Amino acid sequence: MPEALALLSLHGLDAKVIAGGQSLAPMMNMRFAQPAHLVDLNALSELNGVARSGDTLVIGAMTRHHEVATSATVRSACALLAEAAGTIGHYAIRQRGTLGGSLAHADPAAQMPLIASTLGARIEIVGPSGSREVPACEFLISVMTTDLAPDEIVRAVHFPCMRQGERHAFEAFSRRHGDFAIAACAVTVMLADNAFAALRIGLGGVGDVPLVLDELAATCIGEAADAGAIARIGDAAAAAIDPHDHPDISIGYRRDLVRTLTMRALERAIRGGTQNT
Amino acid sequence: MEKTTIFLNVNGSRHEVHCEPRKLLSDALREDCRLTGTHVGCEHGVCGACTVLLDGRPARSCLTYAVQADEAEITTIEAVARNGRLSPLQRALHECHGLQCGFCTPGIVMTFEAYLREHPSPTEAQVREALSGNLCRCTGYQNIVRAILLAAEWMRAESVDVPA
User: Fold this and answer.
1) Which CATH number goes with the domain that contains A73?
2) Alpha helices in chain A, H assignment, sequence order
3) Which of B48, B63, B130 lies closest to A26 in CB terms?
4) By the 8 A CB rule, do A158 and A173 touch?
5) Of B44, B129, B132, Cβ closest to residue A29
6) Does residue B18 come out as left (phi exceeding 0), alpha (psi in the -120 to 50 range) or beta?
7) Which of A101, A206, A227, A264 has the fewest CB atoms within 10 Å distance of its CB?
8) What CATH number does the domain containing B141 carry?
9) Which chain A residues are within 8 Å of B132, Cβ to Cβ?
10) Which residues does A34 contact at the CB level (< 8 Å), separation at least 6?
11) From the CB of residue B49, how many other CB atoms can be counted at a distance below 10 Å?
């Protein structure tokens, strides 16, 4: 790690950190990115691994998506994260792509930025003057833009463990399997007497960064978790987004997708098919 | 750009390769190791034709730099058949007519040699999900899916025969 940090300090903006390379290498192959130097983190085994410490799940930045998706620890402590990680790209891509790389790349439609934002994860960053932690929603600044300085490296991600009885669902839509989603929705739900006791709704692919609808969720607490509520929340989520107009994907289409995905995610979470084990 | 010397352990043979750090593993395998069974299709990770096993796990060799594989164990399509005998997956692809032009086939074989070891009894839906990472422009996938399911069946039967 000291060697990697020294190389980044030496080369500054001419250097780029490479983790799994599943986004950076395509960008370099297509000459969209032309860094003069790559600093490869793959040999840093201390950046690998999943550990639970009390109510926090700490995952090393170089942990591959496949491990995040299949780890028994992640599945029991943070099942929403495991479910979403299992939908990233394709099987071979998930063997190489990493959690830290996905966050540092900050594609607005990617799964990991959405889940980190929705769950309120904290990003642990190491730089020449020590380490610091930043909430995911502050780490993600804009499209492919983060709070990470050119001489800093993501070391780990700290996820608050989901609570006992908390249900979740992740829904995404893309035209081809494995592509980045046009829109995605992650929800977590706690129920008490069939009413919302806690609710989190996160949307991806709808703007420059993931959108977490805390205010909307707060208005639902105490309300019956029935079809009427699901439809109302779907409409409100569709109205809450402010997406870019795109020649192939109109704003109206994206709103419709957000409404549908939000309703599907809520229905599935409330049914409780995917609780933490 | 200055060349560097690396060692690639490919299919059990050690290859000394002198290459620029920017050289892709797919190009090093084809040009330096002279193993052209690994195909290069899209060069951005979508088509899956270049998939090899890197330390036992499937990886896009077009998204990996050769220098990153220095001293790693690499398995390519050339090593899947043993002693002139096709692997169960290769036999099943032959049997089910799971290929036409064959360009995508090495990537499919390498992906599913790993996948079937991890998932010995996949459902058809799971096979299709995993196969989504390999593009085939000829077959329409039906026979590939049949072949993978058949190979899984054969491999399960084989593993029963072999004492643990």
Assistant:
1) 3.30.465.10
2) 2-11, 24-29, 65-70, 72-77, 79-85, 91-96, 99-105, 111-119, 136-139, 214-220, 227-240, 251-271
3) B63
4) no
5) B44
6) beta
7) A227
8) 1.10.150.120
9) 90, 176-178
10) A28
11) 25
Domain hosting A125: range is 44-160
Spatial distance between the Cα atoms of A68 and B33, rounded to a whole number of angstroms: 34
Chain A residues near residue B111 by CB distance under 8 angstroms: 91-92
pTM of the entire predicted model: 0.95
> Strand A15-18 vs strand A37-40: parallel, antiparallel, or unpaired?
parallel
Q: Which of A48, A119, A47 is nearest to A82 (CA)?
A: A119
Question: Residue B15's domain spans which residues?
Answer: 4-79
Residue B7 tokens, joined: 């060692």
In a domain, A133, yes or no: yes
A25 CB neighbours in chain B (<8 A) are: 24, 44-45, 62-65
A104 neighbors A154 (Cβ within 8 angstroms) = yes
Structure tokens that stand for B83 in this block: 């002693």
Exposure string of A49-78, with b = 16+ CB inside 10 Å and e = fewer, is: ebebeeeebbbbbbbbbbbbbebebbbebb
Q: What tens digit of pLDDT does each residue of A180-235 get?
A: 999 999 999 999 999 999 999 999 999 999 999 999 999 999 999 999 999 999 99
